[in-house]
Amino acid sequence: MGNNILFLSASEIARLIKERKITSEKTVSKFLEQIKRYNKKYNAVVTLNPNAIDEAKMADKELSNGNLLGKLHGVPITIKDNYKTKGLRSTSAYLPLKDNIPDRDAEIVKLLRAEGAIIIGKTNLSVLAMDMQSNNPIFGKTNNPWDITRTSGGSSGGCATALAAGMTPLSFGNDLAGSIRLPAAYCGVYGFKPSFGIVPLDIQMDPKEKTNGLKTLAVSGPLARNVEDLKLGFEIIAQNTKTDSTSIPIIKNGHELESKELNIAWTDEFGGVPVDKEIQEAIQKYIEKLNKAGIKTTKAIPALDFYQAWKTWGSFVGMQGGFNTPNFIKWLGLPFTKGVLKKVPMHQNIVKPTSVEKFMVARNIQDKMITTMNNFLNEYNAFICPVSAVTAFPHHTPTKSFGNFSIYNTPLKVNGKSIHYYMATQAYTTPFTLTENPVISMPIALTKDSLPIGIQVVGKRYSGHRLLDIGKELSKHVGEVNYPLKNEKLY
User: Is 156 a catalytic residue?
Assistant: First the structure.
């Protein structure tokens, strides 16, 4: 068993272990060796599970006794470091939590362990998952495996880098502004953002917050190197648990869709936000491939007021993320952020004082936009669009901080023109967070500088399983991703 095991899918590893063609112990050992060899360079895994080998030995023993523990029996996986893991450090990249060891598992961790998964490590992120890069004062920054001078994206950047570097076959992150979708696109892997309410969300919060204020928008989801593994991960975590029975039942699939039945809407730009020409060209070429394969495509955009969608997304984030911050304090902070956020509609309402009336107004706007997207996707099976205005960019330093929130004055470049950091990274993801549509982020090409280009495949609300089936069909026209370490010599 050589390096090739490191880039097998989690589904294939699970099958090989089940058929006793490989052992969990040797598999886990190989992934730990890969982390030991490359993690110093990429900084994707921040805490290792010291009991991983013992857990793998136990999994092998159970199998030899005829006991299959579940769909991921003995399979090594990683978890973003803002999920609670019993007995294993969970920091959320937040200094007051740097030595925090929870006494219980997060809900999705319980579900994964119940299926026999072995958590070999925790992955890096931004402070309290509040940036589109993965950098923090405890562990430092995570580098992109395609070019270490560039970002892996955030906030689930450690998950994406670990996958692209062969350190894990499956990882689990969370997404509020694109924190699964952006790192997946920047690192050339696959990510899945479910509809809100489908998967339990139980993350490690700032210890000063006794109540979790995130009651809309934020979701948990898998990252992997193919759609099949996204589907496997989603099936496991999209369930109620004994300690959280609030998840919404998901819509089951009908018949399997074939290429000739698909009708896909697409665009390479919306909302007046410019997109890098290489991304636009890659999307256009990919659409041509779909057409040649007999898949019907139509260039069309949902009738959303994107500016209003961005502002409404920010309203929810500000109301829920800062629900325990008095309006007086928010008023005091406005002068420090007003100029910086003038051109960023997503963040204009995050820092503003709020009220019950404003919350109800935002809910009504959201309802209308959900209906608009639902009507649009009654005509199409899915909607393809960019993930980001840019590909993975060089590590970008914030100008200053406001609490735990980084503020950027230095713009990113799109086709030679300056665009605000948050418009470049969040403009294409936040609308579908607001409308609660499931979204697959999947790689379709490389730039001339060998950086991954990804797309979003947006599905109908609560139809995650159907979207993953569509994504599996669409991924047939992508080709195999040749990850940077995939052909490294054995060690």
Answer: no
Encode pLDDT of 319-362 as tens digits. Answer: 887 666 766 566 566 665 666 667 799 988 887 888 889 989 99
Q: Is residue 482 situated within a structural domain?
A: no
Question: Which residues span the domain enclosing 273?
Answer: 3-308+339-475
Roughly how many angstroms between the first and final C-alpha of the chain, as a whole number? 11
Q: Please, which residues have CB within 8 angstroms of residue 80's CB and are 6 or more apart in sequence?
A: 122, 123, 125, 129, 155, 156, 158, 159, 171, 172, 173, 174
Q: Is 80 a catalytic residue?
A: yes
* Active-site hit among 80, 193, 352, 460: 80
Instruction: Tell me if residue 401 is catalytic.
Output: no
Q: What is the mean pLDDT of the chain?
A: 92
CB contact set of 266 (below 8 Å; sequence gap of 6+): 283, 287, 297, 298, 299, 300, 383, 384, 385
Let me know: does 467 contact 432? Beta carbons within 8 Å: no
317 φ, ψ (degrees, to nearest 5)? -65, -45
Residue-wise over 98-116: b if at least 16 C-beta within 10 A, else e?
A: eeeebeebbbbbbbbbbbb
Q: How many CB atoms lie within 10 A of CB 51?
A: 14
Name the 3-class secondary structure at 454. Answer: strand
From the list 126, 179, 247, 388, the catalytic residue is 179
* Domain annotation covers residue 327: no
Question: Which candidate, 95, 163, 181, 74, places its Cα nearest to that of 123?
Answer: 163
Decide if 332 is inside a domain: no
Question: Cis peptide leading into 463, omega within 30 of 0?
Answer: no
Structure-token pair, residue 182: 């952006």
pTM equals 0.96
In a domain, 149, yes or no: yes
Give the β-pairing of 219-224 and 171-175.
antiparallel
Catalytic residue among 155, 171, 195, 247: 155
User: Where residue 101 sits, what CATH number does that domain have?
Assistant: 3.90.1300.10
Q: Which of 98-112, 121-135, 144-158, 344-358 has the lowest mean pLDDT?
A: 344-358
Domain count, the chain: 1
